[in-house]
Amino acid sequence: xxxxxxxxxxxxxxxxxxxxxxxxxxxxxxxxxxxxxxxxxxxxxxxxxxxxxxxxxxxxxxxxxxxxxxxxxxxxxxxxxxxxxxxxxxxxxxxxxxxxxxxxxxxxxxxxxxxxxxxxxxxxxxxxxxxxxxxxxxxxxxxxxxxxxxxxxxxxxxxxxxxxxxxxxxxxxxxxxxxxxxxxxxxxxxxxxxxxxxxxxxxxxxxxxxxxxxxxxxxxxxxxxxxxxxxxxxxxxxxxxxxxxxxxxxxxxxxxxxxxxxxxxxxxxxxxxxxxxxxxxxxxxxxxxxxxxxxxxxxxxxxxxxxxxxxxxxxxxxxxxxxxxxxxxxxxxxxxxxxxxxxxxxxxxxxxxxx
Length: 355
Ligand SMILES: [Zn+2]
Description:
By secondary structure, this protein is of the alpha/beta class. The protein has 2 domains: 3-82; 86-331, Class I glutamine amidotransferase (GATase) domain (Rossmann fold, 3-Layer(aba) Sandwich), CATH 3.40.50. It has helices at residues 3-24, 31-35, 51-84, 100-112, 155-166, 185-191, 310-313, 316-331, and strands at residues 37-39, 42-44, 87-93, 117-123, 143-146, 170-174, 206-210, 213-217, 225-226, 230-236, 250-256, 259-260, 269-277, 286-296, 299-304. The protein has a 9-stranded mixed sheet, with helices on both faces. It is globular and about 90 Å long. It starts with a helix and ends in a 24-residue tail after the last helix. It binds zinc ion (ZN). Zinc ion binds at residues 98, 175-176, 257, 308.
């Protein structure tokens, strides 16, 4: 229901009411004050003495009741439409050492499932093309999803993006988006931890599991690595967080890269889930944090280190956490129920054509 329609409607109602008021308002001492009122060319006396006055009173009551009823219905419709209006989301791609042309449509399809999001895509210029023109209108969206790992954005775009997030916008970083922009401090605060791009202990600490929770660890070493791709078990570390609430404690993720040794500012980070990085597959032998919720000013960031390929993204666990993470980033809440189709600790579940 548009505000224009409501305004027109209110204007119509007020005109009706004005007509009622006009015929009720009779100046004291005027001939009609004692003799009756005029309406639509009819003349009649007091409401109790003439059947037409009873009809008139009924008409007024009916009019007011009808107006109230219509107002209530309109407000209800406005409330419904406000609730069901899709959240505007923007995926950014265009450069990535991964197959962004294949994976962006998967991200888009996952987010559009259930009509919770209306998704647009902004494709940045390719390498060595004119990046200066890349200035998405971030303010049009509730959440920005990055499937981007490439050249630095123009300074103005960086400033606008930081302002968007810190003032309450949502951001979702997917997989290699955490490789991006090693030299951009505000971006690294948003993602919490990242990898590659020359990241070292100078980039910030690791997040390591100590005493049952993930804490900063300043040990020296590289920032970012992974072993061979394989299926691995995600373990929930923040079961009461809106993104994770209702999801299984452990679930088997489809074949993917298990990022390890990510590091960065690591402030205001909640580790939502981790996976054991087995040395048998070239890992660290440690629990590696892979899903994160980060507070950044008034804004919220969901960071999933999962999603190397179309296969990895087609995991029902990846899809559900992405969609829930994007909703939390956009609104601070998660209204989605836990999906019926979800991996167990021992069995992978892939999204189908209807997902
Ligand atoms: Zn990858």
